[in-house]
Amino acid sequence: MADQLIRATAADGGIRCVGAITTRLTEDARQRHNLSYVATAALGRTMSAGLLLASSMKKPGSRVNLRVRGDGPLGGILVDAGLDGSVRGYVHNPTIELPPNSIGKLDVGGAVGSNGFLYVVRDVGYGYPYSSTVELVSGEIGDDVTHYLVNSEQTPSALVLGVFVGSEGVTAAGGLLLQVLPKAARDEALVSTLESRIAGLSGFTPLLKEKHTLPAIFESLLGDLGLQLLPGVQMLRFHCGCSWERLLGALKLLGTEELQDMIEKDGGAEATCEFCKDVFHANVSDLQRLIDDLQTESSAR
Predict the structure, then answer these.
(1) CB neighbourhood size of 271 (10 A)
(2) Which of 204, 120, 198 is nearest to 157 (CA)?
(3) Pseudo-torsion of CA 68, 234, 153, 216, nearest 10°?
(4) Would you state the pLDDT for residue 103?
(5) Mean pLDDT computed over every residue of the chain
(6) Pick the CATH number of 4-238 from 3.40.630.10, 3.30.70.100, 3.40.190.10, 3.55.30.10
């Protein structure tokens, strides 16, 4: 199945449900960053979480940044996800590997570490971005983002994330977000029913591997609660907005002396994007043009 995001409601609008399949974009990230198994799972879960959080935003151009900083050997995760379905991200130590945890699964919590913080920044497209910080609960990503939603956004939420990666690469990845909105939050029976059904899930990636579609998963969870699938299927992708032009803009900020030093000592400049690992080059002629532009601008003042 193509990477996609679908939205739904239930209980007369009292429940919000969003599901995302992120298999291909997680595999794209794995290849770009040469990720280990556990690093793939950690980054894949965080990218899915970012897309699910961004899905509730309204203004075009809105984005969510997630930064996970724990005391584990992974060193940290940074993800940038947009309402438009684009996402990018990286981990600080992409090649670290750990033995499976006590239940035989990839030890994401051990890699991330349970002591640290989750930083969430919501850029709503105007004014100052909203930022929140919560302590990590387990380092497993799903628990930590749920903790953020409950404590910072005051919204009862359940988040299920998963990445299945083997010798052939990523074969299933995605996530499911269920939220009880204020109009239904006081219905204790409804909240209890949702908690029980989420707890009964064997995981999200096993359902994807068995070829269950997002609407079918929604139906199994909320079909008897007035499920309403919202129109439109949003395509998701790994996308980075870096470019050669942006490299030149950044180099220009260094000033004439630094650019001249690059010409004399290095014969040009090279930069690698942390998010997508694309490499950009500026040769001597490019740097000289930047110097000429700076000198022209200076003389025009």
Answers:
(1) 16
(2) 198
(3) -100
(4) 84
(5) 92
(6) 3.55.30.10
